[in-house]
Design goal:
Blueprint (H helix, E strand, L loop, with lengths): L37 H9 L19 H13 L1 H13 L19 H10 L6
Length: 127
């Protein structure tokens, strides 16, 4: 985990991304997706640093996917530092952010609250 990379504007975990060795992030101006990224453009238009700061319950752009949507919701409830702490603890416990391609242990959930519980515990069978 490269903690200083933190959480992207959209809620994805740059700190755990397998692309972080050559990606400068969405604020660098060098991101290859910067022109079409709906979440980056929207947050820039609103003058906010991250989607989780916005008061809307938005599901546009990448927030239509459960992982970034839930990461944003987690930060709204518990703060970015708590999310980073949980992600770091989970990584140390063997939870994988990306396996082959872009899917990992945080993907495949259909229920937001179950994913929040998994983020907190790193355990699929938590109480």
């Amino acid at each position: 985990m490269i903690r200083r990379l933190g959480i992207a504007r959209c809620g994805l975990a740059c700190c755990l991304c397998s692309e972080n060795t050559h990606c400068a992030g969405c604020d660098s101006g060098e991101c290859q997706d910067k022109d079409w990224c709906e979440n980056r453009n929207c947050s820039l238009e609103k003058g906010i640093s991250h989607c989780y700061i916005c008061g809307e319950d938005c599901r546009k752009g990448i927030l239509s996917k459960i992982k970034p949507y839930t990461f944003n919701l987690f930060v709204k409830r518990y703060g970015e530092e708590r999310l980073l702490d949980c992600l770091e603890a989970n990584e140390k416990a063997g939870v994988v952010y990306h396996r082959e391609g872009l899917n990992g242990d945080y993907d495949g959930f259909e229920d937001v609250e179950m994913l929040i519980d998994f983020i907190k515990t790193g355990n699929l069978q938590s109480p």
